[in-house]
Amino acid sequence: IHEVAPRDGFQIEPVFVPTDDKVALINALSRTGLAKIEVTSFTSPKAIPALADAAEVMARIDRVEGVEYAALVPNLKGCERALAARVDEINLVMSASETHNRANLRMSPQASLAQFAQVAALARGQAKVNASLSTAFGCPFEGEIPETRIFELVDAMAAMGIDRVTLCDTTGMAQPLQAARLCEAVQHRWPQIAFTAHFHNTRGMGLANALAAWQVGIVRFDASLGGLGGCPFAPGASGNVCTEDLVHMFQ
């Protein structure tokens, strides 16, 4: 289980969560048996003021053996800052949907891929690189995303040497049959890649989709404490699947 609340949850909170509180929460989470915690995002403080303390949080947390500490980075400069903070994993994000990619990242998917290649080259030997593919199960602007589009993008990532990929249901559009089909297909095509499933609970389908993905072999799941989070660039998107509920179901 990968906990994303400190980044995905806090980034859209209307008030700044004090650094001391962030550190205390992450330290407590580190002792629960989680495999990975997405601690923060090394993005511009102007863009996401809620995470302006990224470097300080990374410097102050207690690192528990067996837990990976990840950070989202938007570009090469963010990657440099994250590497300086000794993150275990760099998490990159782009959308399968052109419209969502432009709304979220203000660039085309092709430009995002070019940036991925630069970051992957910079991080090589210093940190793991994970590529998160937003709107993999559907886009609020474009609707259905063809599976062939997902395959093209994962192929491009694999060619860069990226061996960790997260399939994101950014606005909770997935349903179990689709989740199982896509998750099974990507694992069959790229057995060398460690795939993670990232579901949102907008339509109450998060746990059902996670179970469907697990039944076809996915063993890594993003989740958020209390179901915090959501996409600020997708109208009506509610939070991630709730960590407590997901752990309870799998137990």
Question: Can you characterise this structure?
Answer:
There is one protein chain. This protein has an 8-stranded parallel β-barrel, surrounded by 7 helices. The chain contains 10 helices and 8 strands. With 251 residues, the chain is of the alpha/beta class. The radius of gyration is 16 Å and the shape is globular. The protein has helices spanning 5-9, 19-29, 54-60, 76-84, 98-105, 109-123, 147-159, 176-189, 206-215, 243-250, and strands at residues 2-3, 36-41, 68-72, 89-95, 128-134, 164-169, 194-199, 221-223.
**Helical fraction:** 25-40%
Q: What's the pLDDT, averaged over the residues?
A: 95
Oligomer: single chain
- SSE sequence, one letter per element: EHHEHEHEHHEHEHEHEH
Supply Rg.
16 Å
- Strand portion: 15-25%
**What is the overall silhouette?**
globular
Low-confidence segments: none
| Discrete helix count | 10
Question: Count the strands?
Answer: 8
How widely separated are the two ends?
12 Å
Biggest β-sheet: count, sense, barrel?
8 strands, parallel, barrel
In the sheet with the most strands, the strands line up as 1-2-3-4-5-6-7-8
Broad structural category? alpha/beta
Produce the secondary structure layout.
Blueprint: E1 2-3, H1 5-9, H2 19-29, E2 36-41, H3 54-60, E3 68-72, H4 76-84, E4 89-95, H5 98-105, H6 109-123, E5 128-134, H7 147-159, E6 164-169, H8 176-189, E7 194-199, H9 206-215, E8 221-223, H10 243-250
Parallel strand pairs: 1-2, 1-8, 2-3, 3-4, 4-5, 5-6, 6-7, 7-8
Helix pairs in contact: 2-3, 4-6, 8-9
